[in-house]
Description:
Layout: E1 5-11, E2 14-17, H1 21-24, E3 31-39, E4 42-43, H2 46-59, H3 68-82, E5 87-96, E6 103-111, H4 118-123, E7 125-131, H5 144-157, E8 161-165, E9 170-174, E10 178-183, E11 186-189, H6 199-210, E12 214-217, E13 220-221, E14 230-235, E15 239-246, E16 249-250, H7 257-277
Parallel strand pairs: 7-8, 7-15, 11-12
Antiparallel strand pairs: 1-2, 1-6, 3-4, 3-5, 5-6, 8-9, 9-13, 10-11, 10-14, 14-15, 15-16
Amino acid sequence: MEICTGNHFLMDDQILPASCFQYYLKENTPGIYEVIRIIDSVPLFSEKHINRLMNSATRSDITLAFSGDYIMKGIYDLVKINGILNGNVKVLLHYIGDKANPDLHWYIYFIPHHYPAEEAYSEGVAVILFWAERANPNVKAANSDMRITIDNELKERRAYEALLVDSHGNITEGSRSNVFFVKNQTLFTASQDTILPGITRDAILEICKKSHYQVIEERVPHENVHLMDAVFITGTSPKVLPVQRIDNFIFESARNPVVLNIIRAYNKLINNYIQTNKL
Length: 279
C-alpha cells in the first residue's frame, strides 16, 4: 500500500491534503517511479532522477504530455508546501489502459524513510543472496509481489538488503540498491544493461575514475563472493553503505581503505551539490 507522509501531496496540478491520499492511490498501483532524497530542502541529484524517470517512460512505451521541468517544479513546490527539510519524495506516474494513450496521472508525495544508523556505516550491514531477476531491469517500475517476498525474507533473516542472483548464478544488483565488490584496488559491478542504473552508482563510477580505481563492469558469480576484500551497496537512502556479511561470509568492508575513500568522496559530492542548489 502506498503511504503518504507530510500534510499535502500533489496530483497533476492539484495540491491535496494527505488525508485523501488513499482515495486516489490504492494497493498494487501500476506505474513507474523515482524516489528522491531531500537534504536541507534540496532534492538531491533531482535532474538525474527526472531524466531516468523520463527514460523509464520511454522504455515502457508511455507517451508523456509534460516535461521533466514540469515535474521538477512540482517537487520543489511539495517541499515548500510541507516545510519538510529532510526526507524522501516519491514521484509516481500512474497509468490505466493503453500505454500509447493512457489515462495518466502523476503524483508527488513524501514517503516514510529509513536511513541506516551510524553503526551501519562504522561496522557494515548484513545482506543476503536472493534468486530473482527483474523483467525489465532498466525501468524503475513497481513490483509489489517481489517487494513483499523480499521484505519478508529480510525480516526473517535480519538482513538489511537482498542481492539478486540471476539464473546463471551471477549477482546483478540489490533489490533496491546497486552493489560493488572490491578486490585490491579494483571494483566489480554489473554492467548497466543488466541492472537499474542507479544515480548513486553513476556518481561512484565518476569518483572511481578520478581516484584512478579500475572498475570492471561484469557480474560476480555468487560462489566467488568470498574472494573479495570488501563489498558495499549504493542507493538514495543508504548512500554508500559497507557490507559486513553476505549470508555466512564476513567482510571488513567498513575498514577497507578503498571503501572509506569512496564514502568520503561521495559525502563531499553531496555537500557541494547542496551548497550549489540551495534556494
